[in-house]
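User: Can you model how 4-fluoro-L-phenylalanine sits in this protein?
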Amino acid sequence: MAVPPMHSGPKRADSSQPSSRGTWGSKLGFILAAAGSAVGLGNVWRFPYVTGSNGGGAFVMVYLLCIVLVGLPIIVAEVLIGRATQRSPVAAFRALSRRGGPWMLVGWLGVAAGFVILSFYTVVSGWSVYYAYRAFFGGFTNLGASEINHMFDALVADHTRNLGLHALFMAACIGIVISGVRSGIERWSRILMPALFLMLISLAIYGCFLPGWRKAFDFMFAFRFSQLNASAILEAMGQAFFSLSLGMGAMITYGSYLSKETGVLGAATSVVALDTFVALLSSLVIFPVIFSFGMAPSSGPGLVFKSLPLAFAQMPGGYVVAICFFSLLVFAALTSAVSLLEVVSSTFIDLYGWSRQKATLFTGCVAFAFGIPSALSGKGFFLTWFKSHLSMSYFDLMDNLASNWMLPLGGLATAVFAGWFFRADHRDREFLVATKSTFRLPWLYLVRFLAPIAVFVVLLNYTGILAKIQHLMR
Ligand code: PFF
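Assistant: Here's the modeled complex, given as structure tokens:
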């Protein structure tokens, strides 16, 4: 089927043949790589503790609604934009809109978000590497609560170790991305993702035999209406964005390597389903352990790095379970960090005609340098100065900036673009490839109205405007 010509901006390197950019080997290759991007620290580390802090069932319910009504339409929009243009975000928006104009800025915002997230994501990923290493050498056995707490606090405050781990993890990402789309990203996703699923399912089966399983299941799925408040709803939306890697062009980039014959809706739905499955199952691994050992589910970010190792230290088979769990965390983090680096480096490949080697090495090294203050945020200047002037550490500032502002803004803009500014005949033709026409209208309504409005409300909340409106209405 002929695709209408795209509006081309000034002749630049992005007019290079798409085939020279690389493609996925198959639809499954795309699904595993995109699920690799989506499934990350957000699922295994963040989702369980945010669920725990928000009281469980009600939060899970709202999260699932956000995934289906906001996340799915936007991920479809992103993959569609990528597949339609076969270009990374900036070049994609330039190709689809007249001379790019303001829409190119949306692409650049995504690249900037990818860069910022990558710079601190590799720091937390480094902690998982350290914990996997400690688990392997039996590091939690016979340790008590204070020793395990101290282990985490000491790690976070250890500048040399954090820098080393940050460098190691970034080097691994560079190594994978530099090898290319198919022989780097896809190959590693094909190895790491099935290994991750296998370990997760084994751990979940183990969890079923723990005394706290029933309580954990109730905690996760019993819907108690009284727990639902505005902030939980808004947090659920933010989590959905982060978890599905939305709003920064990761799915545009991965979609750009997808063959023109692959249906976008089916592929995107598989990615969303896998991501949600891993988030729920991770919680069904973590909470039975937490409840069996009488710990609090609401202990915040330390849930995985403090509470869980303490339980591993005491439970039968804890040595093996700890190795499985922390390796799983490393695998999940690696495939996500790789996608962040890919967004940034593919931009330089597409826009400036750089070789993959040059683009990856350059962007990886700059992201490493940019992440140094995050790696040093556990103690000293980047903690104390930033805390006293901005009330959060440098690390938290980066996380806040990217997750609470840049991703929702990028997601909002992408939904508006796909719903209102993407030429209708071109968009519909792209959507209908290997996809039933009955899904077109529901998708269009979600991406035009519900998704942008929902994200807009989240942004209003972050600016504090929502609280002011609520106050005025009282
Ligand atoms: N989705 C990843 C996670 O859940 O950990 C994080 C992430 C990766 C966000 C890639 C955005 C992105 F582009």
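A couple of observations from the model: DSSP finds 20 helices and no strands in the chain. Residues 101-136 form the longest helix (36 residues).
User: Helpful, thanks.
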